[in-house]
Structures are given as structure tokens and as C-alpha cells.
């Protein structure tokens, strides 16, 4: 009982301190270019913005794509069965300049700081290949990320993604926010282990879900703490990049280390054919 009360007091104090930091930093937010204002507005309103590499127009994009398509042929070369639970193959590539430099473009960091409201921590980037799967498990279950109060993941499609490739899918933030009854119906379930399509459909109808299909070069900028989301089952492979950002420091920094530590292998691009 006393421990529960203590935990609640600490949580309240932490939230008060967080709100104070937001107010203090509000006057220090960097200016953003007019062409980027719609990204901040979309994130604040819907927790997601879908754009393209071409629309963003970063000078580092050609190097990013060249490095990505150098590594991709080395991934997914092992045999796997369509009937199995096939986990994605993930490489951490934060140490490779072509990836790291795209993720720290100043325009991008300015946008994210205006959305997060605090100095930004850029944790790193992973390249991943998702394989054929007929059943939901792991990140194909509906879930929210929990590294921080606001978490921005940037997903770049490296191949065309339609229904067969298992696109990123989410529920609009307004349907699962804390002032919506659905939040209290969903939270205990997703906090424990995530939920499948059938379970979610009983609370939020499938007609309200948003599927992010698009050609290679599609960029999804999403707050994966606010959005209930998942990757869908697929009958064809999907290749993506994932960049991760939180406030600096994050609320749970220990959950952010996978983007630069040895959780996943790190390819040496110098030894790969170009």
C-alpha cells in the first residue's frame, strides 16, 4: 500500500517536472522552415505525417539510399518457412555515416524539437527486412511504444509497400486518447502483451484503422507512443529504415539503447559490394 502511494507521488512529481520543462523550453524552440510547418501541425493533431524522401529534399538522401541498397542484398538470404513465425532481420546502422547523417539533418531535428517540445535525443537507425508471416506476433500485434512521453519513429519504405507487403497501420490518436473511453478499454490489454486484430476490432472497428501503403521512398513520421500501431501480416517481404527520437533524456533511456548497442548486428559497409 505504502509503495503504491509512493509510486503515485513519484509519478505525479515526474509529470509536474516534465510540464515545467516544456514551459521553460517553449521560448527556446528553433525556427522551422515554412515548408516544414505542416509536419509539426500534423504530428500535433494526428501524431502522424506521411511524406516522401523527394518532398523532404535532404541533400543526404542519395547517400542514404545507396547505402541501403548496398546492404539489402545481404539480408534475408537464409531459408525460412512461410508457416513459421519469421522474425525480421535487423541491422543497426547508426555507426555508418550515410544513415546517421540523414537522421541528424538540422531541418529534421528542428521539426522534431518543435513537436516534442524539448531538446531532442537522436538514438539511431536500423535497417530491417520483414518476412512472410500469416499470423500476428511480436510487433505485428497492436501496441504502443514506451520509451518516452513522446516518441518519434521515422519509417522509410525501401520497396513499394501495398497490402501484400504488410504496411504500417495505426488507429487515429483521437480514438484512443486518454479522454476517450477506448483508452481505458485498451490500456490493460496492450500494456501486458499487445492485442490482435480480432481483439481490437471489438473496441475500435476495422473501418477506422489507417493503413500506410506507398511506393519506395514513402516516409512515415509517427509518434508511436500516442498511436496504437503495428505492422500487418504479409505475403511478400518488406524492407524499411527505422529512425528513433525522444526528448533528451528519455523517460526510459534503457529502452532506447538497441539503436546503437550490440542488440542487433552491425554491418561493415566497407566490406560490402557497392
Write the layout of secondary structure elements.
Blueprint (H helix, E strand, L loop, with lengths): L1 H24 L11 H10 L1 E5 H4 L4 H11 L17 E4 L4 H7 L2 H11 L3 E11 L21 E6 L10 E4 L9 H12 L4 H5 L8 E3 L5 E6 L4 E4 L6 E10 L27
Antiparallel strand pairs: 1-7, 2-3, 3-9, 4-7, 4-9, 5-6, 5-8
Describe the structure.
The protein has helices at 2-25, 37-46, 53-56, 61-71, 97-103, 106-116, 181-192, 197-201, and strands at 48-52, 89-92, 120-130, 152-157, 168-171, 210-212, 218-223, 228-231, 238-247. The protein has 274 residues and is α+β, with helices and mostly antiparallel strands. The strands form 2 sheets. Strands 1-7-4-9-3-2 form a 6-stranded antiparallel beta sheet. A 3-stranded antiparallel beta sheet has the order 6-5-8, with no helix packed on it. α2 (37-46) packs parallel to α6 (106-116) and α4 crosses α5 (97-103). The longest helix is centred in the first third of the chain and has 24 residues, at 2-25.
Write a compact overview of the structure shown.
By secondary structure, the protein is of the alpha+beta class.
Based on Cα principal axes, name the global outline: globular
Distance between the termini: 61 Å
Percent helix:
25-40%
**Rg from Cα:** 19 Å
Number of strands: 9
Strand order of the largest sheet: 1-7-4-9-3-2
Regions with little confidence, pLDDT below 50 for 5+ residues: none
**Which sheet architecture does the biggest sheet show?**
6 strands, antiparallel
Classify the beta-strand content into a percent band. 15-25%
| SSE string | HHEHHEHHEEEHHEEEE
Annotation field: number of helices:
8
Helix and strand composition category = alpha+beta
Mean pLDDT, to the nearest integer, reads: 93
Amino acid at each position: 500500500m505504502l509503495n503504491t502511494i509512493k509510486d503515485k507521488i513519484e509519478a505525479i512529481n515526474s509529470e509536474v517536472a516534465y510540464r515545467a520543462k516544456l514551459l521553460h523550453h517553449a521560448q527556446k524552440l528553433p525556427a522551422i522552415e515554412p515548408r516544414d510547418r505542416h509536419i509539426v501541425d500534423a504530428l500535433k493533431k494526428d501524431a502522424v505525417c506521411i511524406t516522401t524522401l523527394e518532398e523532404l529534399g535532404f541533400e543526404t538522401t542519395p547517400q542514404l539510399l545507396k547505402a541501403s541498397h548496398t546492404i539489402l542484398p545481404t539480408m534475408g538470404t537464409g531459408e525460412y518457412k512461410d508457416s513459421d513465425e519469421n522474425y525480421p532481420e535487423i541491422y543497426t546502422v547508426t555507426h555508418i555515416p550515410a544513415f546517421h547523417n540523414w537522421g541528424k539533418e538540422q531541418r529534421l531535428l528542428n521539426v522534431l524539437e518543435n513537436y516534442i517540445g524539448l531538446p531532442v535525443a537522436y538514438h539511431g537507425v536500423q535497417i530491417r527486412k520483414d518476412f512472410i508471416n500469416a499470423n500476428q506476433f511480436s510487433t505485428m500485434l497492436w501496441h504502443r511504444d514506451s520509451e518516452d512521453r513522446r516518441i518519434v519513429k521515422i519509417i522509410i519504405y525501401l520497396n513499394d509497400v501495398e497490402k501484400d507487403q504488410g504496411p504500417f497501420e495505426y488507429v487515429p490518436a483521437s480514438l484512443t486518447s486518454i479522454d476517450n473511453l477506448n483508452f481505458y478499454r485498451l490500456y490493460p490489454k496492450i500494456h501486458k502483451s499487445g492485442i490482435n486484430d480480432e481483439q481490437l476490432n471489438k473496441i475500435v472497428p476495422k473501418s477506422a484503422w489507417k493503413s500506410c501503403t506507398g511506393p519506395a521512398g514513402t516516409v512515415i513520421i509517427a509518434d508511436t507512443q500516442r498511436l496504437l500501431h503495428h505492422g500487418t501480416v504479409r505475403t511478400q517481404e518488406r524492407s524499411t529504415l527505422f529512425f528513433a527520437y525522444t526528448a533528451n533524456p528519455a523517460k526510459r533511456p534503457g529502452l532506447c539503447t538497441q539503436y546503437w548497442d550490440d542488440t542487433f548486428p552491425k554491418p561493415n559497409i566497407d566490406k560490402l559490394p557497392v
